[in-house]
């Protein structure tokens, strides 16, 4: 009968509606959990980055620093043997540079929240200093 079919249809639609609500609730929970995990991972990565002791404010084009890939705003965490534990002033860097002319130095910087390693060889060039 039409009334029976209409009641069956209503009951079936109610079941579909409940199932959709449950599905969306699970998806919402999963999304919130994924976001929380991503945030926790991002925070733990930031905490694992070493602390910088200097920031690059200029790099002359064509200089040894430029050729090595050093960029403005790089935060230096290791420059040869100099790191946060033994850095006192920029003279420490100058001393390492003078004693390393023509020999590659290991340099580690933080760039855009990521640790970047590079080799930098202090040497005489057309500009001032051994780095530029």
From TrEMBL:
Ranges in coiled-coil conformation: 9-46
Matches recorded under Gene3D superfamilies: 2.30.42.10
Keyword field: Chaperone, Coiled coil
Domain named PDZ: residues: 21-113
Keyword Lyase in record: no
UniProt record, GO biological process: proteasome regulatory particle assembly
Keyword Chaperone set for record: yes
InterPro entries xref list: PDZ (IPR001478), PDZ_6 (IPR041489), PDZ_sf (IPR036034), PSMD9 (IPR035269)
Cellular-component GO terms for this entry: cytoplasm; nucleus
Protein family (similarity comment): Belongs to the proteasome subunit p27 family.
Record's function text: Acts as a chaperone during the assembly of the 26S proteasome, specifically of the base subcomplex of the PA700/19S regulatory complex (RC). During the base subcomplex assembly is part of an intermediate PSMD9:PSMC6:PSMC3 module, also known as modulator trimer complex; PSMD9 is released during the further base assembly process.
Subunit relationships: Interacts with PSMC3. Part of a transient complex (modulator) containing PSMD9, PSMC6 and PSMC3 formed during the assembly of the 26S proteasome.
Protein name (Swiss-Prot/TrEMBL): 26S proteasome non-ATPase regulatory subunit 9
Gene name of the encoded protein: Psmd9
């Amino acid at each position: 009968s039409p009334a029976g079919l209409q009641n069956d249809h209503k009951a079936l639609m109610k079941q579909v509606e409940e199932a959709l609500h449950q599905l969306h609730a699970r998806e919402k929970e999963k999304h919130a959990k994924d976001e929380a995990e991503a945030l926790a991972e991002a925070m733990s990565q930031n905490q694992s980055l070493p602390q910088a002791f200097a920031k690059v404010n200029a790099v002359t084009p064509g200089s040894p620093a430029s050729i090595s890939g050093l960029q403005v705003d790089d935060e230096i965490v290791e420059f040869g043997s100099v790191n946060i534990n033994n850095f006192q002033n920029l003279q420490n860097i100058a001393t390492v540079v003078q004693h390393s002319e023509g020999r590659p130095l290991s340099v580690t910087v933080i760039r855009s929240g990521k640790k970047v390693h590079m080799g930098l060889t202090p040497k005489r060039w057309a500009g001032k200093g051994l780095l530029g």
